[in-house]
Design brief:
The protein is α+β, with helices and mostly antiparallel strands. The chain is built from seven helices and four strands; from the N terminus they run H-H-H-H-H-E-H-E-E-H-E. Helix content is 59%, strand content 17%.
Amino acid sequence: MDVEAHMESVWFERQRFEEAETRYQQHLAGTSQVNQASQGGIIQELAAARSNIEELLARGSSGSSSAQLTPEMAARVNALEKENKQLKKSVTTLEDQLRRLESRLAALEISSGGAPPAKAAPVSDDDDDEDDFELFGDDDEEDAAAAEKLKAERIAAYNDRKSKKVAIIAKSNIILDVKPWDDETDHAEMEKLVRSIEIDGLLWGASKLVPVGYGIKKLQISCVVEDDKVGTDILEEKITEFEDFVQSVDVAAFNKV
């Protein structure tokens, strides 16, 4: 039963098998051909495309291609032309501003004493524009001169205030303990010798005798000194030079005034 059905199927599809066998034989022989009907259609399409291309090229060479522009292309061309005009206008404006800046720079350099840089004269077809530039340059030169004058006045005023400013002098209040050798030392003479020391920036103050012990008294004397001119080392050195009366000198107190 299966064999008969198989034979019946093969019989009804005989044409398909024959076509498949023919293609297979052509493939083996290398002589497979393209369907003539489809080949003819492709050739016609290629010929039509070639003809359209040649026609478009001919129109482009004759200058009539603009008539074939689509609405979208025409709108794009108009937008580009408008943008080109705006760019030209912007370039012109920038050139004018550059000329003005060059004029101002030259005026500033002249006012400051420097030589202006060599440059080409601005090209302009309108004489009125050149006159405007000259007037603008004169204004800049006057402004620069006024600015320099104001600057000089401010510097002079600052120097004047600085010269009148009273300098703050740092001072200190020092209390010295001057010790004698023994109780027989003449304290009045010792104080007289101490006060005989004169130094620029030194001012002697009050003094008193303070008991130390065993009948010995030390001379406690105060003074005011300018820190930049007088120090404790100088005072101790000067006082100990009176070695017949002074045994030693100590700083009892040191305070800033």
